[in-house]
Write a structure and sequence with these properties.
The chain has 72 residues and is α+β, with helices and mostly antiparallel strands. The chain has a domain of 43 residues. It has one helix and three strands.
Length: 72
């Protein structure tokens, strides 16, 4: 299996994805919120993780080397 290497200690986003492709989704059953890179071709979130606070969202952006939006 091939892995994409990290750049300056940051993870690389999926191929062709940018900060504009990051979206949050919430479950209507449990209220759990996940954030990830949205792929419109498959209608799924890639590399999704659970977030519980605005700090978790900001950390997700920084993990991929993006500046978090000012309005979370």
């Amino acid at each position: 299996m091939f892995f994409r290497h990290r750049k300056n200690g940051k993870k690389l986003p999926p191929e062709g994805m940018s900060a504009a492709d990051i979206q949050k989704q919430s479950s209507i059953c449990t209220g759990e919120t996940v954030i990830g890179f949205y792929d419109p071709k498959t209608d799924r979130l890639l590399q999704a993780v659970v977030v519980r606070s605005a700090q978790d969202v900001a950390d997700y952006y920084r993990m991929y080397g993006f500046e978090p939006p000012s309005k979370l």
